[in-house]
Amino acid sequence: MTPGLAELARKVSNWGRWGADDERGTINFITPEVVQRAARCVRRGDVFSLGLEFGPDGPQFGQAGRVNPLHIMTSTSNQMTPDPAGLRYADDVVVMPLQCATQWDSLAHVFYGGQLYNGHSAATLTSSGAARNGIDKMANGIISRGVLLDIARLRGVEAMGPGEVIGPADLEAAERAQGVRAERGDVLLLRTGYMRVFTVYRDRVVYMKQMPGLGVACVEWLHAREVAAVASDTSMVEVWPPEDPAQLFPLHGLCIRDVGLTLGEMFDLEALAADCAADGVWECLFTAPPLRVTGGVGSPLNPLAVK
Amino acid sequence: MTPGLAELARKVSNWGRWGADDERGTINFITPEVVQRAARCVRRGDVFSLGLEFGPDGPQFGQAGRVNPLHIMTSTSNQMTPDPAGLRYADDVVVMPLQCATQWDSLAHVFYGGQLYNGHSAATLTSSGAARNGIDKMANGIISRGVLLDIARLRGVEAMGPGEVIGPADLEAAERAQGVRAERGDVLLLRTGYMRVFTVYRDRVVYMKQMPGLGVACVEWLHAREVAAVASDTSMVEVWPPEDPAQLFPLHGLCIRDVGLTLGEMFDLEALAADCAADGVWECLFTAPPLRVTGGVGSPLNPLAVK
Amino acid sequence: MTPGLAELARKVSNWGRWGADDERGTINFITPEVVQRAARCVRRGDVFSLGLEFGPDGPQFGQAGRVNPLHIMTSTSNQMTPDPAGLRYADDVVVMPLQCATQWDSLAHVFYGGQLYNGHSAATLTSSGAARNGIDKMANGIISRGVLLDIARLRGVEAMGPGEVIGPADLEAAERAQGVRAERGDVLLLRTGYMRVFTVYRDRVVYMKQMPGLGVACVEWLHAREVAAVASDTSMVEVWPPEDPAQLFPLHGLCIRDVGLTLGEMFDLEALAADCAADGVWECLFTAPPLRVTGGVGSPLNPLAVK
Amino acid sequence: MTPGLAELARKVSNWGRWGADDERGTINFITPEVVQRAARCVRRGDVFSLGLEFGPDGPQFGQAGRVNPLHIMTSTSNQMTPDPAGLRYADDVVVMPLQCATQWDSLAHVFYGGQLYNGHSAATLTSSGAARNGIDKMANGIISRGVLLDIARLRGVEAMGPGEVIGPADLEAAERAQGVRAERGDVLLLRTGYMRVFTVYRDRVVYMKQMPGLGVACVEWLHAREVAAVASDTSMVEVWPPEDPAQLFPLHGLCIRDVGLTLGEMFDLEALAADCAADGVWECLFTAPPLRVTGGVGSPLNPLAVK
Hints:
Four copies of one chain form a homotetramer.
Chain A: H1 3-12, H2 32-39, E1 47-49, E2 70-79, E3 88-97, E4 103-105, E5 110-111, E6 125-126, E7 129-130, E8 143-150, H3 151-154, E9 165-166, H4 168-178, E10 187-191, H5 195-199, H6 204-209, E11 213-214, H7 218-225, E12 229-232, H8 250-259, E13 262-265, H9 270-279, E14 283-287, E15 298-300, E16 304-306
Parallel strand pairs in A: 8-10, 9-11, 10-12, 12-13
Antiparallel strand pairs in A: 1-16, 2-3, 4-13, 4-15, 6-7, 8-14, 14-16
Helix pairs in contact in A: 1-8
């Protein structure tokens, strides 16, 4: 950490804010009132899946040990009864990195200085899993109001390019242009259009290796706005290559470890964004409950947006 | 199939109802209007997770090849930067049957006569997965109104016993007692209290090997009410040992293959039921999007109920 | 089964030959005397690995649910001591079909008529594995004399072509040309050269989908010679497409289920064959102990030949 | 490293001995002459498996993320032909740590100071596996003469106890008592009897958590004798708890990283030792080829001894 980042870390820290034992971070902003407001966003009853498929054609190409899911059929036609003409069943097993496609990071995913979010010791991460800050600690969430900010649209491009930085001014310009405002407890959905590199142009390597995204200046903005989570259509939410080659992954470090703000990655926002552009309504009921994997560091997801 | 069941199958069949290509069955009942109604069930904004944890202490004990999840940590403290004092990350992989704890069956899970729901050929089930009726075909769902019927409460017991049959009269008695009615597009949540055998008494073998549940007479009732799905706190929804030893798993066969009605299994309804008993409101916004596993026969879940 | 094959099955059956409980079949031919003879084949002390690598570039392309191994690093640099400058270790996990590259079939791999080799019921195959005839029953083997018959060399080709049939006359012609004879207890190593399609031309699909190999007439020959096992450089040992489209996989059915003769597949015989051609000695000490996977249907291998 | 150990490391180092690129270490001692001598150890032709079973009842209990193999049946009765009365097959998949039962460590398993055996950088260990010193580099081995030293027998006990140290004097006393001598290229098989804690008394936790074994003074002895490998009936070969609490795992560090000497763990030597005690012959042909797992850090095994 440079002195600058260390200072920023202190500034945005939420450690202790919800008690010394807290393992949920900014998810705590999702109060019953926030959920009520979220439910009121359902006007037409239209549902959008923001999840990628979990299958052999997923975005992984082996980087950092991440692979696409291996789906093993353990039965295609086993008999359920002694009668061969009777009922039969199919069954299956999956082998997958918990963060191989659309997913939440848990607050145990990234850390430094021997401490996870809220000061929990990094020694709580063992081969048995994350004893603290695991994804299982977010059991009742994440359901809230989703606010989509479409930065690609703001810039008038189909998709932003790799290394293109989004700053607080962009976020606020999008809010103004769209007539919406990210508030306490909201889940911020951030569209760069870069998902199209994978879904339309089918280049998983380019999609995974570099991307547009949030710059480090947004950490204070996210902290000030008190959003519950931020999710984007890239694999890291933050920009890559990084703004400062001497500071790698500053958003991952500061958001997850200091703010206690979870990141949602590889959300497919294309259909939702098109719908929002058409009706001018940029908020939705957002529901993306993580699997309760005991000690899990992340969770695969099928997030839904309802308008 | 006995002649009686074959006759019943014809009677409750929804094949062709949503076109020859349909792979979603009764999920089709969840129209935008149904979703609007569901959203209006959010009054207080309180959220309940209905999911079990996915971990080594799950309900499986090896029956039929199903095991509890194997959670493998691939990193507990790998460096993200060249600096050992810099950011570090944890990462993980899971190996699990897709139906090892709280889960949806897909409409490819059970079949007979060489045909899946809607007449799709059983030959579409291959080692590559379910080409038709897979869980990936339910991408935009399942979000609807949840209606909880608490049969254990109706009978004045903590938990119903193994082999105890629930009939249409029980369902309607519960509706009357609770002042609620399962309607088109609703997800029926059926509490037997039997989950406590696992969660309280920690006997996974008894929990998995026998159970109370729906009798075959309920198939017509579910079909007539046009519910979108039915989920229970047991591992099979239907009663076991079966009513007729010559007819094994009749509900699985008829609901999944003929009605096109998906089953949700091992939903933990205890906290939700207690809340409903306390405030007398037995409906909720229910959201349980399956993972989009390509060709998956089922999906692990963390279903949420919001009141 | 056509009547012809059924008659052949009766003729070559070894059921009961080693007692009603036998689960090892022709491996029983490997007596201590045979092992002594095998050891005497070591003249120079040169060792040849006949195994393919188990890795992402293996021969599988997803056919019949078989995939190449997924190798997961669970540690690349974990500390073994409290001192960061002290010992560190790497560790790993593999996920793989037991028959994904060089391997033995067990006598539980193929069956018909509800019975495995020696009359054991097919019902002994459950989701817990093969209770009878599993690969774990071959714990002390397979070590014997290896006799290499090079049919590609006999025919003067680099590699035989797909669908090219090897008959008993070819085997005997190769024996005469090479001055060697497969006898009781030997492991027959059969070279077609077709392995080069995978190892040299890198076409895994062509390599796996069709191949030269033994014709059905060889079953009696193998039975009469009382070899302990037969292994080849193709993925099935037998020819494909088959000689008779109405009889698929006759060698798998007859050898494994009736003769009790295990098949070794995807053995890389190139270096060994070149050496044998150079020195004119076509026998070796052959050692290929299967992993003792409890109830395993097959086993991955690294077979060694020593001359 | 204490200064004493660092000095010892320099003394026993084989770095550069077989060239700067060497990745095989003391396996290089297995020359053709050594293999010839090994083959001459086959007198009666009796074969002993030294491998444990790979299954759910294996020795692992979750320590350090190691679990027993998960064996998944992907077919118990799938049709191989269109005819339901025709051939059927069973097939399976295994998920397992490569070091979960009887196994070889590779020379990439343990390291310090940023360097593996022979000076290869620890940075060659990535999520893709071990690019240097992996188990795949031992493809042609390990086949050699096995020399069994039975320390439990020497001490007149059924099994040595946890923490009991074996020193060079013990090894030489056993050699004298047994009339055998470990020489260049031999594989030293070291019996403590402690395997019985697992195989007879079925206590996997005691078996894995502490054990008798080699003391640090044996490193020089092993280096001087130029054995190719050393294998024992415990999970670590070296004694635990350690001789000096300030020096954890000194044998793993020095043997694997400095000597380039691979360790074989959890070898079941009971039947072989009983046979040797009976006939007074303590040498055998030893064959234990590792699976060629690309970049593997270790390999599961079924080692054979032939007398």
